[in-house]
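INFO  loader      accepted 1 record
INFO  loader      residues=269
INFO  predictor   begin
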Amino acid sequence: MKILGVDFTSAPRAGKPITVAVGKPSGQRLRISEVRSLRDFAAFEDLLASPGPWIAGFDFPFGLSRQAVADLGWPAVWVHLLEHCRQLGRAEFKRVLDAYRQSRPPGERYAGRRGDKASGAHPSVKLVNPPVGYMFLEGAPRLSAAGLHVPGVREGDRSRVALEAYPGLLVRKQLGIRDSYKSDDRRKHTPARREVRRQVVSALKAGKPLGISLELPKKLERELVDDGSGDLLDAVICAIQAGWGLLRHAQNYGLPADLDSLEGWIVTS
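INFO  predictor   done
INFO  writer      dumping tokens
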């Protein structure tokens, strides 16, 4: 069994690839052996098609809020919703969600999922800072097309399991670290942020906060601490969250029994 952690981007390229941590579990330990960079969606689709057994934590929303789907009159079955959004394309998807946001009362512009509120994640209809709506649009339909098993959402190949992950949940809510640890702006790659990343890595190695001890080569540990974008660290956190789910595979990977199959749920929430 392999464990993957995927730090996703809705526009992969050489300077901002999709980042994948690869590891193997051993009881309450997770050994990360390498971190890969995927520079385009074709490489990401190849990853999804790779034979199992593996389980992966993906850092993008798997669904939209049921309220938003109902208000927009979009299909209320997950696979049909994904196909509808895919056919809209990015420009029309943006136009519709921009208009929907403006139609809602101030202070309630973004219709959130129940899991967004539980985890502190950004609403999956948001298109800027960060553009998680685009991440949903580019990520979730590819999971469905690859035939992955998405617990509580869609039956698929159970040797390839997809869990929605969110590094911010682990760092901010579960470790209680509020200081920023990353930025895509190189001018903000400060010693202070590096120190926060070092603190996070040290906590993970000690088995905090999920009871899974991170093991990794010294060279890779230095790269996690030195990477100002935080992409390497986020990918590793996604792998740890997937590992937490794997330990609970008999209990639907630790996901709530009453999760909304249209919205999905963030593992460890």
